[in-house]
Structure formats: structure tokens, C-alpha cells
Amino acid sequence: MPRSIRRTTLLAALFGAFGLLLAWPLLSLAFEAGLGAGAAYVLAVWLAMIVAAYLVSRASCRPDGAGRGPQEGG
Amino acid sequence: MDAGRGASDLLPLLAVVALAAYATGLFALAQWVERRGPAARRLVAHPATYALSLSVYCTAWTYYGSVGMATTSGLLFTALFLGPSLGALLWWTVLSRCIRLKNAFHLTSIADLLAARFGKSPGVAALAAGGALVGLTPYIALQLKSVIGTFAILTGVSGGDALALGVCLAMTILTIACGARRLDPYERHPGLVAVAAADALVKLAALTAVGLFVVFVLGDGPLDILNRASAGGELPALGREQGNYLLWTTYLVLAMAASFMLPRQFHLAVVENADEGHVRTAQWLFPLYLLAINLFVLPIALYGRSLALPAGSADTLVLDLPLGAGRPMLALFVFLGGFSAAATMVMVSTTALATMATNHLLLPLINRPPALAFLRRRLLMCRWAVIAGIIGLAFAFERHFGHTAMLAGLGMISFAAALQFVPPVLAGVFGRGASTRGAALGLGGGFSVWFWTLVVPTMARAGWLPPDLPARGPFGLSFLAPEHLLGLTGLDPLSHGVFWSLLANIGLLTFGSLLFEQSEAERRLSEEFVRGHAVRPVRPACWPETPADIELSGKRAIILSLIADYFSPLAAATLVDRCIATAGLAGRERITVLELAALHKAVETVLSGSLGAAAAHRAMNRGTVVSFDESASLSEIYGRLMAELKLPPAELIAKIDYHREREAFMRRQSQELEACVAERTSDLKAKAAELTRANARLRELDRLKSAFLSSVSHELRTPLTSILGFSKLLSRDFARHFAPLAAGEQGLSARAGRMAENLRIISQEGERLTRLINDVLDLSRIEEGRLVWRDSALSLGALVNEAVAATAGLLSGKPHLRLCMELAPGLPEVLADRDRLLQVLLNILNNAVKFTAAGEIRVRTGPADGGGVRLSVKDTGPGIPAEARERVFDEFYQVVRGDTLLNKPEGTGLGLAICRQIIEHYAGRIWVESESGRGCEFVIELPAEATRPARGPAAERCAPPADGPRRPLVLVVDDDPAVRRYLVRLLTDAGYATAEAGDGEEALAVARACRPDLVTMDLMMPGMDGRTAIARLRAGPELARVPVIVVSVLSETAGADAALTKPVDENLLLGTVRRLLEGFADLPQHDLLAPERSERAGAARFFLFPEAGGLPEPAAEVGEDFSGAVLVPAHSAGSLDLARLAARPDLQLVIMPDEPEQAEACRTPGF
Questions:
Q1: Which of A65, B65, B227, B660 could link B407 by a cystine bridge, Cβ 3.0 to 4.6 Å?
Q2: Interchain proximity B82–A42, CB inside 8 Å
């Protein structure tokens, strides 16, 4: 599989995962528990998103170039 | 409190001054960056600057409104920041693609992107620009409102229209200065980016300051804030109302779209982007910034809630709290943070909107009526006017509607407007099927529904429309009710408007794209967009040959006339010439039709950077840059190319795409590699710095060690001197007084012998210890720079001779070891300390003798490469292993073979270390070359700086002593330095002046220079041997009469005046010398030197006998075949049987008179 597609798949998966975490069915469980639990939940998801974005950006500048590249083929 | 009150009284003035100062600071920063100094370039090129500039997302609405929203709606505000954080995960795909397109098509705005994608359509561009203008102007008004409102809260003085006008004026000037200085298509606005980044830091600092103040000064830490909140009533939780979940999701989607699609976000993220790689940093740094700026929002809201303040004041809580606590300076800082948020937003938004409005709304208007054509030449001023107009419109909006809307409400409506760009942008950038008409329909429908469902209700609430219109619809048509469109109920107004506008947008886009087919130009553009780059006109190998029959100057004139409508003549000419150079046509007179097409495209692309894609396309098509014939020719060429390639266009495009992807990949890999190299270089630099520090520490420790050794050595020397002295005294006294007493008894004698041996060992070890200490002291003195160097001009040859002579004694125990010298003549003199240099030579020679059992030690001198002198000592010893060649110059290092204890060589291991220090003091080099088992060669090179031209080697060697009468000069010629030294000492002691030479050639040179009175000549020498030298001496008129004595192991005279065999007898030598110089000086040569009668070639013509007793049978020694004179010392004559010699007719027996002391010595019994 071309690496750019792998990257897109990874990003889409991350986007979907965090999107789900922020969507109302899961969020409601945390918010129903009160403001503190809701805030902690939001903070955790937020931090996880930042860490994921950071790791993805770092992976793209590894010396071996792994994690990014053009579409191969054509 | 008094101070606080005092400060409060001054606040209006302070606030105005601070505002003016801050605005001036921003202007100065922008100016500094625009000047593009090295520091400014580094600042703007930094990815963090790019990421921080994106924080223009956090406007005054965010700054003040987040706390207000948290107070009224709990955690709902976090959706506004979680949305961009979530969307940032996709930036790598979406944002990067847009940046590549921007670079390829010179895009200037989001409207330009849409226009460029959808057939350069001015309609799509105008729709996008108009929608943005309508949707965003209220948002700008919101910023003005926040500045004016917070100023009034801070100072307690309503600024009124004057303040509002002042703020508008300042923002207009700042916007023009930072974002619209030029109309250069190549120009970005680094000043604007820098200002946005700086404002990001100010906003963050101000909100953090007030957050810390609330939590730790007003409250007693986070727990106290939570307790107060519990007591005063918690913030509303989302979960308590089902509708909030939908609102949460709407906020999330709107914020995600707005973080990229808002014109100001697009402008900074795409248009002002300097490096696509910066997206990687922004992807995580931007969400981190959003988290940081919101960290204290909840605590501030909770604290505010506990104070039970009125709901209307929630939006300004961050300002009210420090003011209420008597901290006007903190409040002023917070106010400046809010102003910076507003100012950045206004500047960037207005720049982006003005660009869109000028290019896509104004230009189409002024292009039509000829009366307005003059405005085309004043496009930059038009843009300035548009900027002023937008800010003025926002100001008017704020004045009329500002008091009617909550801050958050207006912001979300603008976000919903930005959401309308999402469908056409995503469909255009990632999809091939979206058509121009579909995009126009989608945008038009989306903005219309947005206006109807979100803007109209706001206007109704402001009193400009009937208040029941949102709920009941126009003319009683309830299905058109803005807040219940088509009877849809149960949604909050925002979610309702977003739902319908998005549905209309997507639906019409899809419908229009299905209904209306794309034109060929659209299809080509859609391909380019989906690939993320423009198709550049390149010339493949199979490109058909076309004649270069089009005059470039003519086409240049046509292009100039077309773009002269928009630029000054000079700017237009520069632009066209730059395009010609870019297309590789500089200097050409005629071009092909393909090159003309490339030039046309290049000019249009560059022009779109100023006018937008649609206007640029239209402008280029107004003229006849490509004539009808040329266009037909172009079509024919393309057709032929397709036929020759035998590829369908789609496949050809796919192949080109593949190669372009590869090229881009290689470029990115190269950039990444460069980044990695830079990173590693940085690491290496850090490590180098660390090593430097460690080295400095080591040097310091080394210095301390040297000082310690020096101190200890000094302390040791004093008692050691006593020990040595007394041990010698003890040995002497023992030998003199006690040993004789014990001589009689066997037991005592043996014991005395052991005691004497013990005393000898004490002395010997004491001396060894003294040498060690002296070495240590020498080394430490050199290292500490305390050694006094007594430099003088030295002859390297003389120094070598001296060192060799001093070493000669060591050779006595090694009969199979030979010491040779090869001294190059004419070497410069060395400027150095004689004793130190001699120390070096002695050390190396001693080592050579010590480690060489048999063979040869050869000392050579010669010139060094690059000037200076070179000296080497080569031996045939065991050599030095490769791993030890450098270490032998280390302190206390000794090459040990086999078992360490058994094979440890004698010495301290400091000698060579000292040698190196001495040589390096004179900027010289010392090293060793060796092959293990085949000896080694120590080489010393002294640079030209440490030398001076010699006075002449020969002259130097025969320089007379400074004092005393002239003495006869004897030139001693022998290749063996030990023999030479011995002879010199012997002759010197006998009162002769001496000169030396190591071979025949040198002997001739010295003889010519010194005019010696006598020469002693060895026969077997390297280079010119003694026989040749004697012949040469005899050949010249000047030296022919100089007496020569052969001193050799060979019994032949070789044309000399006398011959002595080695080992030479001192008395015979001195006697012969004396007699040749004095006794026979008056005799004719032929009387002494009988004609040769021997058949033996080179047979001696006279023979000198050694000491008495040395030859018991003189006749046998002289030999039967010898003929000539036999000289016998008188004191030996009595002990020899000379009768047989006297009887031989071919011999002339001469009895030489003795010296007085010799005669005396002969009489001494036992001699």
C-alpha cells in the first residue's frame, strides 16, 4: 500500500477515533457524571489529540523518511 | 488600595497611551520584519511563528466570550477549540494540498481557490467573496465592539464615537501597513504573520496572568475555586439538557470548519505559508496553544459564578475581576490582550476580505465601463479603499447592531458562513466531478439559506424586521419560517441554520455537478487540482520539433499592453521579464509556439497572484497573445504528440503525474535529509562544546597535576641530595677504611662485599630517582611555561656530532652496533636552546642504542619540506608496534613486550614526552615511523621560523678559538663519529685546533674553507671515500701540499703522507702529526716518500709502528711486500727486533725521536 495512503488511513483513523470520543453518546456519559468528570474527559481527549498529532508530525521527519511519501505507482 | 485608586484615576489616559504604544509597537515589528534582516527572516521562517500566527482564530470573542460561555453554558465553549484540534489532524492532507495549489496557481484567497478550480469562473469567485464579506463583516464589528466596550469597562469612561473612530483609523492604518503595502504577486506579508504571532503570545500571557490571579490570589488554589463553585452553584452541565448534545456537535463542526475556512485562517494558513513543512509543527502546536489559552477559562468562570454576578457581565469577567480586586494594571494588561486579539483578527480578516472584494467584486465592475478603466491602474489604492470601507462598514454595523447581539451569537453566525466554503473546497480539491455550475449553485444556495435561517432572525431580534418573522415566516408562510424551515422543529436556531444551509449547499453542488457537464478546461483544471499541482509546460524527449518563428519582442509588447492596465510600466516590464526568465526564454529573439504557450501560462499564473485567477484569466484573454494560427498550430502539435506517444491522454497524464510525484517525493526527502543533517550537526556542535568543556577541565587538572608534581619533586630533591651524598661518602669511607680491615677474613670479606654492593645499589637507585625527578621537573616546567629558554643560533651538524660523541660510550658494550651519520651540507642554523635540543638528541640516540642490539643507527640531517630542517635517527632495533607509535610520546608510557614486569624497559617513560614538549615549543614536529621488527625512525622537523641561514658549514667548523695564539689546524675526516670525536679530543688536548668532516666530500669543502695544516683521513667512508678525497686534495694547487695521514683499518697510504692502522696509537699519531707539521716540514717530499716498488696497489710508502710491545714481530707486521720508509718511535725501538727490517734493502728504517714525556714514560717501571 502506498505510504501516503497509509498516512491518510492513519490520520482518518485518528480523526474518526477522536471524533467518536467527542461525539455525544460517549460524551454524555462523562457529562452526566458532572462537571468535573466532563472536564477531565475533555482534557484527556484534548491532550491525546495533541500527542497523536505530535507523534504523526514527528514520524514524518524521521531520517529514513518512513511515514510519508508520494503515491507510488501510476 | 490608594495606589490602586490612584492608578484607576489615571486609567483613561494610561489606556489610551498603552493602546497607542501597543499599536506603534505592532507597526514597528511589522516594519522590522518587512525589511527582511537576517534575524527577521529567521523569525518568520520558523515553524513556531507560523503555528502561533494561526492563533488569530482566538479573537476578542474567544478572549472574552469563552469565560462568558462557560458561565452560561458550561463546557460547551470547549467545543469551539476541540473542533480545530480535531480538524488539525487532517491538516496534513487538506492544508498541505491547498498550500501546494497556492504555490502552483499563485492563489490569494479562498475565493481565488474556488475560482481557479472552477473554470476561472468570475461568478463563483464573486459568490464566495460576497458571502465572505457579508458573513464576516459583522464578525469584524464584533471585534470593534469588544475593544470599545472593554475600554469603557476599564476606564469607566465611554469612549464614544471618537474612540471608535480612533480605533478604526488605527486598525485601517495597521492593516494597510502590514497586509496591503504592495501589489506584487510574489510578495507575501511577513510583517502581518509576525504581528499575528506576537499577538498570540500577548493574548496567552494576559489570559494566563488573570487566570493565575484568580486562582491563587483571589482564590486559594484550584481546590478552593471548586469549593466556592459548589457553594455558589455549579456551572450548567451539558448532559442535563438533551438539546445541548446537538449544539455541542454543531459547535464542533463549525469550529473545525472555521479554523481552516474562515478567510483570515485561510489567509494565514495557506496564502502566507512560507514552507509546507511548517504544517507539521502547526498540527500539534496550534491545538496545544488552544489548550493553553483555555486552561484558566473554567476556573475564572467558576469563581465568577461563585460571586453571583449578573449574567450580562459574564463576557467581561476577565476584566471585571482584576478591576474589582483593585488591580488596574493587571486589568490594563488584560485589556491590551483583548485589543491584540481584536487587532490581529481585524487586520488579517480585512486583508483577506479586501483581496477578495477587490479581485472578485471590484475588478469585474471596473473592467466593464470604460469610465472606470483608470481604476485598474490604481488597484493598490482601490484595495486600500476597500480595506477602509470594510472597517468602516464594520464600524457602522457595530454602532447600529452592536448592542442587540450577544458576542457569541455573532461569532457563530460567521462560523456558519465559513462552513459554506467546505463543500466546494473539498469537492474541488479532492474530487474530479464537481462542476463550475454545481459550485455556483451550492455556494449560492448555501449562503442564501444561511442568510435566511441565521442572519434574518438576528435582524429581527435587532428590530429591523418583524420580531415574529423567524417563527412564523414571511407573509404567514410557516414553511418558510427562518427558524422552522419546512416545518422542522426541535433544533436550536444555530443547528437548524447549519443543517439547512449545509444541506442546500451540498445538495445543489451535487445536483448542479450531475446536471451540468464540465467543459474541457474545467476537466483539465480539476485534474490539476486533484493532483495538487499545476501542469507545468515541460518539454519531454519525444516533444515534436517546432520552428522558432515567433518574435518574442512582439509577444512581450502584447503582454505588456495587457497587464499595463493594472501595473505601472516599470512594474509590468519587470513582471513580464521575470516570467520570460522563468520560462527559460531570456535572451531569445524567436520562440516556438510551445514556448509561447508556456510564457502565456506563466504570465497568467503570476498575474493571478495580484488579480486573482478569474481576473487574470480574463485579462490575458482580452488580447491576442496567442493568435488563431498559433492556437491551431498548438492543437496540431498536441494531436501529433498524442499520436506518436500512442497513449490515451488519461494514461499520459497518469504517467506525468507519477513522475511529478516522484520528483516531489525526492524533493521532500531531500528537505527532510537536510533537516536531519541540520539536527545532527546541531547535536555534533553540542557534543563538540561539551568536549571543549571537558577538555578545558582536563587541562586544568593537568595543570594542577604538573604543579603538584613540580612541588613534590622540589621537596624530594633536597632530602634525596643528602641521601645520595651521604651514601657516596659512606661507600667511599667503607672502601677506604673498613673493606681493607675485612680483607683478611673470608667471612668478613664476603659480608663487606655485600655491604659495598648494597651501598652501590643505594647510590645507583638514588641517581635513578634523581633522574626521574629531574625529568618530572623538566616536564612540569615546560608545561607550565616556567622553563627559561636560552635560544641561540646552532649548527645542527655540530649538535649532532656532540650528541653522537656523548653517546659513543654506550656503544662500547655493543660491538655489533654501528653509529653512522649523514649530515647534509648547507643547512640553516637552528635558533634554539642548545642544551634542550641536545637533550632531545641524546634521548633519542640513547633510546636507539638501548633498544638496538646489533646493526646500525643512522643519524641524518637535511632540509625539511616547506623550509626548516629535518633530523632523523633510524635504528635496526625491534621497532614500535603501530598502536604505540603515538603513545610513546605520552608521559610515563613505555613500550613493553611480553610480560610487563619482566620486560619493562629502563627509564622513566618521560624522555620522549619531554622531547615532544621541547620540539613543539619551537613549533616543530616529532614523530616516529616504524615497522615492527624492522627498526624505527624518529623524525624531527623544525620549521623555517626556527632557523636562519647558516654562516657556512665549513667556515663554522674551522672557526678559530676566540682567544689565544693561532694553533695548527688539523682536519679530522672519519665517518665514524666516535672515532672522529676521539681523534678531535686527542688533538685538541695536544694543543691543535681541529675541524671535522664525515666523508670525503665534506672534507674537501672544509679543507677549502679552512686551509688546514694537516688532514687525518679515513679510507672507508660512505659517499666519497678517503682515496678519492686524497686524490682531489692533491689535484688542486691550493691544498696539494697539505700533509695527509691515513687513519684506517686498511694498511695503505692511498697517496697520503703517512698511514696509521686502527686502533691508532695516540703517541704515534701525535708524533706523526707533529713531525709532519714540524720535523719533516723542511724535507723534500721525495726523501720521505720513496717511489712505489710494491705491486700492491696503493701500498704505503712508509709505516709507523705503534707502542712498544704492541708488535712483538715487526718484520712480520711490516710484511714482505711492503717497500718504503718504516718509522719507529725511539722509545719503542729498544723493545723491537729491528734487525731483519734494517737488513732489507727496500726499506728505509727511521728511528723517530721521542717527546720528553714519552721518554719519561718509557722509563717508568711497569708502563
A1: B65
A2: yes
